[in-house]
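Collaborator request, handled under Task 6.
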Amino acid sequence: MSSSTAAHGHPSIADVAPQSLCAREPHVPADRLVAEMVPPPRFDSVRFDTYIPDPDQPSQTEAVRVLSGFAAGLGGAHASGSGKKRWFQKKAAAPSGPRGIYLDGGYGVGKTHLLASLWHATPAAPEQKAFGTFVELTNLVGALGFQQTVRTLSEHRLLCIDEFELDDPGDTVLVSSLLSKVVEQGVALAATSNTLPGKLGEGRFAATDFLREIQGLSAHFKALRIDGEDYRHRGLPQAPAPYSEEQVTKAAYATGGASLDDFPHLLAHLSKVHPSRYGALTDDLTAVCLTDVTPVPDQSTALRLVVLADRLYDREVPVLASGVPFDRLFSEDMLNGGYRKKYFRAISRLTALARDAKGLVAG
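Structure tokens returned to the collaborator:
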């Protein structure tokens, strides 16, 4: 049954057709990229006291203690004075002690929750704090240029980078150079990165790998290990079974603000939209409904899907789908390759959003 047949064959479905992501071609001005460098909506209300440490993992309680102290230490005047003065100075005054925290842990132990809590707890105005993923930071450089990005971020007291990625040497060098410049201006740093699943036994991305790859920046970071299990799957099943195409279509028509797209067509559309615009692509959506979900055909397409999954997860947009379950999106070769940590993260996040979408389907 086609989507249109399903839609018009059921009187309970609303007359107003759902939106289509494939019909959206957002244009995002550079100033919006800067203004949106805040914790995503999913983490608007998180704080240190809403983080529930696992009693079997004392490193989680310790992380809250250390990060709370780090935030408190960032109060008062900027380490180097006003932004404009800092930019024209030859060298800013060097702050004492590490000005960076690296949260070292596996999937789902709450690193982003803690990073966002640090942002919220730092005693500074929102415009003096920046929060974004590694990909969003590279997109900012692409939009503003390297020197303007340095000038913009040097006005901040804290820069939080979620999901620091080391699988692209060029981007790693670019961001390392950028961070070196802003650290010279007295900006404090905090970063997370995800586990490489191939590191059996550890189940995390080793801090030594991170510190080695960022080279000259390593002296600015104190590594803080956080052990634990993926909270998204504690006591829960893996990817839920997909729904029928008819169920997905009916739910899309019955849910105000939902989108409805054929999955292969959506993947083709993503190739025409810059990843920096994927957040805007999902603006004002209450749910994303997908029909005919199939395994992703190639790595370039897979990496674009990862970015979309991140933006949907950030915005807590439930995803209802027919076709194959989300844990079968990526081939074994992909899951064993160099970008595997991204694919595992995408599966984890899409699975969580699929659970969130359960209530959209009529009993």
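The cover message to the collaborator said: "Residues 1-12, 79-95, 195-205 have pLDDT under 50 and may be disordered. The CA atoms of residues 46 and 184 lie 30 Å apart. Please let us know whether this matches your experimental observations."
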